[in-house]
Amino acid sequence: MSLQRVITDDRDLQIAPLFAQRIDEDVVPKGRLAENPMPAGVAAGIVRSRLLLDGRAALNLATFCTTAAEPELERIYAETASINLMNREEYPASSLIEQECINALANLWHDDDGSFVGCSTSGSSEAAMLAGLAMLRRWRERGGAGRPNMVFGTHVHVCWPKFCNFWDVEARMVPLAPGRTTLDPLLTADAVDENTIGVVAVLGSTQDGRYDPVADIAAALDGVAAGRGIDVPLHVDAASGGFVAPFLDVDFAWDFALPRVVSINASGHKFGLVYPGAGWCLWRDPEYLPASLIFDCNVLGGHHPTFTLNFSRPASGVIAQYYQFLRNGLAGYQLIAQRCQEVARQVAAGIRAIAPYDVLADGEDLPVVAFRLRDPEEVGFTVYHLSEALKGDGWHVPAYSLPPDLEHVDVIRVVCRQGFTLDLAERFLESLLKHTERLTSHPFPLPEVATALTFQD
Ligand SMILES: *Cc1c(COP(=O)(O)O)cnc(C)c1O
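Above are the sequence and the pyridoxal-5'-phosphate SMILES. Below is the predicted complex in structure-token form.
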């Protein structure tokens, strides 16, 4: 008797072993939906096998976003996936949780008089749009005329030039300089005028993790107010630093403790320790969030003031944030941040011990390590070759070039996040050493590899 059996009946898909399926174009047509349903297990199997082609999140040293979590957090996401934060009437508990997160952040960021307002967002980019809009509207309502401008360093995240582009605001960029990768307070003061809607300082540059000297920038703007009578608000983009500085750099003044700081954004999905899709924006006082921007959303019968770009959006990031606040408390966040910084120091020390590299950032502010080749001509390879080579061992590490005012230095960046353990860091350094030796002793010139102008995440 033959063991072969031809599956002729569609129903057999229900019982055939998953790997007996022939997953071809008939099952997964290209560019259109399939005619018929398929069993849930088969569909999920196809999706999962497709996703195998993605990189492994934990070995992605490029991103600032959370890639590791305890199983309880994963369950919170699964259990809350259907909640729409916009339906505040239907989900009052979720709305309250959002407010509790805002209250906790206001406390963490020293808004001590309780007059703050805030909202959750899908990330720091949406928060930047909202904070920028608030500054733009306030400037206009106070009689601003002509073309508005916003002042920031060339190292800011792309979300700020994007804000300026979308809302037709002049992006007035203050140059960095060799040896100075942060915003210079005096140059900032020189750049502002009566059309400046605000200045943005960055707490944790994506390039090298450094903090802009926020207190000095605030003082320089105080000087402008006293001397030239121009009162310019300061926003702090604390996408990463908002969840790091309060735990590692308690004496560093950057938040609402500085009267000039009117608003702050942070990404919950970076060092806030939740998965992508969560951000925050807070204003020191309703005065800085013009009422004319607030919409009263009348959903399912209730009236709720909102300031968002989206209408419907998931509540899971907000609920996950609340879970992490409960789970970690101040001490938990501090321990995790300290661990990340310890790993960054170890990685920086390991890289310093490998001959051709110079370390540009060693985790002093954000737990980020950035390094360059001291002399690419001499070694005969670039950081782009190195980045390609490391991929062979599963590591995803971006190489990119710093802003032009830093002479187009090509660097590699390693973000030390929760889940990048000392043990994994050791393996990474082994891999780095191995590839450095191979590339250095390569017998013939290496082919060019694509370079990236800037990398932002
Ligand atoms: C990541 C980042 C952003 C953008 O944040 P998203 O949450 O990814 O939208 C903005 N600014 C800085 C400094 C960042 O690090």
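The longest strand covers residues 196-202.
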